[in-house]
Design brief:
Blueprint (H helix, E strand, L loop, with lengths): L1 H12 L25 E6 L5 E7 L2 H14 L3 E7 L10
Antiparallel strand pairs: 1-2, 1-3
Length: about 90
């Protein structure tokens, strides 16, 4: 009985091995990247700093947040701004 307990303790002490192969190697499809968030809600804080309060995929998603922040009254000069798409530089 003591021998079985010793074997069990040895197995528990060993680090578990995980399969760290890439998802593509395991036959799973690669995940699509999330859509770009091209719209931002920006404002001026009471300290006078320009701040981004949220990033959104569509303007329609940004409008309710803008309305909520306007009714809150904490920030000034609230506006929805279209962000330029991020450009990734090609490595040469």
């Amino acid at each position: 009985m003591a021998k079985k307990a010793a074997v069990k303790q040895k197995k528990e002490a060993e680090p578990s091995k995980s399969n760290s192969a890439a998802a593509s190697k395991r036959g799973r499809p690669a995940k699509e990247p999330p859509p770009e968030k091209l719209w931002r809600v920006e404002a001026v804080s009471p300290e006078g700093l320009r701040v981004t309060l949220g990033r959104f995929v569509t303007r329609e998603e940004a409008e309710p947040e803008l309305n909520r922040l306007q009714s809150d009254g904490f920030y000034e000069k609230l506006e929805i701004i279209e962000s330029p798409p991020e450009v990734q530089e090609a490595s040469e």
